[in-house]
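Hello,

Our lab assistant flagged a job as stuck in the queue for most of the afternoon. It eventually completed. Since we weren't sure the result was trustworthy after the delay, we are filing this so someone can double-check. Below is the sequence as submitted and the structure that was eventually returned. Let us know if re-running is recommended.
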Amino acid sequence: MNAQTIIIIGVIAFLIIGLYRELFRPLLTFLIAVITLFLFGIIDLQDVIGGLANEQLIIILLLLILSDVIKKTNALNAIVKRLFRPDLSYNAFMARMMFTVANLAPWFHNTPVVAIAMPHVYDWAKKKGIAPSKVMLPLSYATILGGAMTLIGTSTNMFVNGLAIDNANCRNFKVLADYKLLHPSGVPIFSFTPIAFPIAILGILYMLYIGSKLLPSRKDALSDFKEKTREYMVETQVPGGSSFIGKNIEEANLRNLRGLFLVEIVRKDETLSPVTPEEIIQQDDILLFAGATDTIIDLMKNPKDLTLPKYSDMPQREYMEVKEVVVSNRSNLVGIKIKEANFRGKYDAAIIAVNRDGERLSGKIGDVILRSGDLLLLLAGTDFKGIAEASDDFYFISDGKEIKNYNKLKVALLIGGIVASFVLSAFEVMPGILLIGLVVVLCMCVPLKIVKFNEIRQSADLELFLILAMSLAIGKAIHNSRADELFSGWLIGGFERFHSNAAILLGIYLMTNILSMFATNKTAVAITFPIAIATMTKLGLTNPTPFILCVALAGCAEFMTPFGYQTNLMVYGPGGYKFVDYIKVAWLPSTCQAHEAAIIS
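-- returned structure --
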């Protein structure tokens, strides 16, 4: 093991720990990793910036933008709402919902499909008196299974295709260069279908007849707010001039408030809990109450005594409503403290409470650093809905967007243009035809008034694009340092007793899938792809397709944790799930899928 390999192992460990523990924003985590590899000479400047010109990554960015454009037309929204009728039984709804989203995901990308369907699925469950936890996780799983069926159904498949082309262009593996001569655009669009289609059918049947019985039945955050308001915290502050200053808790009559209980006092950097009746109140103390938040008016009878913090207070309005949303992975709020987010000023809403990992966070609301997947309970004014819909900061849970009329001809032109681009690419009419076609379709959207230019600009996930580009550099570093040969030797040594290439593929699948549980799936496939190709080379095999498909399917089929795949994280808070629920429901199909994918590949 050389020095560069040791550095690679250290960088991989940093990536996994940094992403899993959310030490920094994902983009910064990747940037630190790539700079480290560059400073140690494992990759050069061309390796660092080469990914920015990768055709497949640009196609991923264009497809994500176009998926968002299709979502904004409300065409899919109308289809989903029409199919999810309120008169359906639970089993009928589950079957219709899962087969619907599994058929939409291969063509419109799985993340937008979940974002569109989630409010309708949630509202259907609420109207039927069924816990959202019984329907939200199947929604995520069905879209993952459906998205895996085509090259464009998930960005993971597209990214692995980009890895294959990038490695072929960069002299890393002759076998990939030979493969590119046969397939100039990389993996054909339907290469995943023979493997992923039967897996999707089995996965949906499993969720219908077995998985649905393992799903928990838990109330959602809004029900908890209405029925168990003691689960939430009310934060108040003692202003200067308050009559409470210098009095103890009992003298200030804060001991026996109707429906409220004083949980703790935050004084500068000190937290006092439990609070004794003799505790003296000081200016600027933060008093945290648990209980019926509708009785907060009892504390506000004299605003000179107690005030709400600026970031939680909402001026009295004629119209205010309790809403719940999930912080998206593209939100500008991620990594920002609530008190620094100017939430009320930006969104005309105040955060009442935050749920994370299925639990309400305690302590000062203003000090909570928001993460993607956080479930926010909001007190919203009339302007909130319009402001939030115009941004990419939230996924709506309840009170889904109203269905607006859409021009069927324009939507047909949009979808027809995308389909035509892929058909021309499949027949390899000319090099780069897919990229050119998608650019042309996107350019049509503004003059046809399908969307506005600023909406296209907002839909461009540049952070994801940069992360994918840096992931390519990390994959090159693994090859340049010969760490891939070392790891492939370990892999072959561990599975050679089975005397089967299928066993080797199973090992690659498990390695990729397990890495996806702790880091992002893009990170996992960037690490394991060069190892998979090095393993194939050592075995003397010449067809890389099974190894490419194995890595891609293992990366996108991450069911056992909420953090391994974005759609799992999207339904985590709304479904009221706990980490163990994913393991309980998904361990059996994940094990079966790993075995079947390896055998079929």
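-- support follow-up --
The delay was a queue issue, not a problem with the job. The result is valid. The first strand starts at residue 233 and ends at 237. The beta strands are 233-237, 260-267, 270-272, 286-291, 321-327, 349-356, 359-360, 375-380, 394-396.
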